[in-house]
Model the fold of this input.
Amino acid sequence: MRRSSGSTRSDRSQRSRLPVSELLRLEPVALSLPRGSGPLLGKIRAALAAEGEPLRWAITAVEAGPHGPELRIEAMVMRRP
Amino acid sequence: MSVQPAPLPLPTLMVVPTGIGCAIGGYAGDALPSARLLAAASGCLITHPNVMNGAALYWSDPRIHYVEGSALDRFAAGELALRPVRRQRVGLLLDAAIEHDLRLRHLQVADGCRATLGLEIGPVVTTDVPLGVSLRQGASGASWGSLERPDALLRAGEALRAAGATAIAVVARFPEDPESEALAAYRGGSGVDVLAGAEAVISHLLCRHLSIPCAHAPALSPLELNPDLDPRAAGEELGTTFLPCVLVGLSRAPDLVARGASAASTAAGCAAAGPLLTADQLGAVVAPAGALGGEAVLACAERGMPVIAVHNPSVLAVTAEALGLGEAGGRVLEASSYAEAAGWITALREGISPAALRRPITQLN
Done:
């Protein structure tokens, strides 16, 4: 018989009950930034920090923009209450 | 006859980003042979679960350090050091959404790894509510995903750490669509792994929160037999779970040590098995030539470390040229294969200038 999730091995398993806010949310973000010259990491981190706490990100394309190459960035950020 | 001593290891970072359909490393741990080769060439390879995890298949090599992707980024940025250990106590975190029989399969895998491989596994904690995994793809085609209840994941992780786990294997119930075109393409050896992006989000979230080694395995029902299965995806169809490789990888994953933290403040109970590894010891980073726009590669490139850009097609085309890495002073070595990348690493390890291996050689001044 198939049952819903449960703890038939309850002696080895325990339910967690510690305070982490239920309002914590993960949100996808897409950004464009001018590539410019020089190091990229600092300016990408600064741009993502304005959206939340970056959890995972990558430059997924570099495309021609009106003022030079633009970085397309896809990310997942965390937003706390 | 005197025997030349082996040169010192050249700690090397290997990155194959998850969920972008890399021809090598976009499937079931199919970059593992390349990782073994780079480990042999370098004597010390730091890489992430996407490279090493072949579901039922795995490989353990003391020269390879298994580091969750976000921890690897922080290591490359100099925020974390790695401390090799003899063993970790791997806690098992199960999503409350996993059905009874599938849950039992995972528990039996954990028992099998304890009995047959001698791993230390436990305790087991189940989330207080289902995690609610969802999958999506970005505009680039890369896979992404999310959780409805990230708080439940973190609560369960905290409970495991409080109960003595020094590393965490997470198993989340993933949505299924056995008839989907994306799944058919993946099993046929094309397209991206649509699960991979959500897997990375889960392990990044937990690892960032707890700063202990973490890795993820999705819980899924077995698929119908496919006679045309691509060999690169076969590792995921040998068993009923994706968990064995995660437990083996985590069992000797290095501790994550915040820079400046004292040794006593990290993972009490795990005896160190080697000196601390830090980013300033790294000698090279190896990544797909079209996927150089990640945090670890950029951190290394911006410190002037050689970037070995390997031909390994994916859905992305973020090259050294597109990023202007050469203009910014980066040192990029192109490789047509991981075998050629191993040659570059051997040259760097031996102190041979890469320029001396190319023609023409220009005159000084």
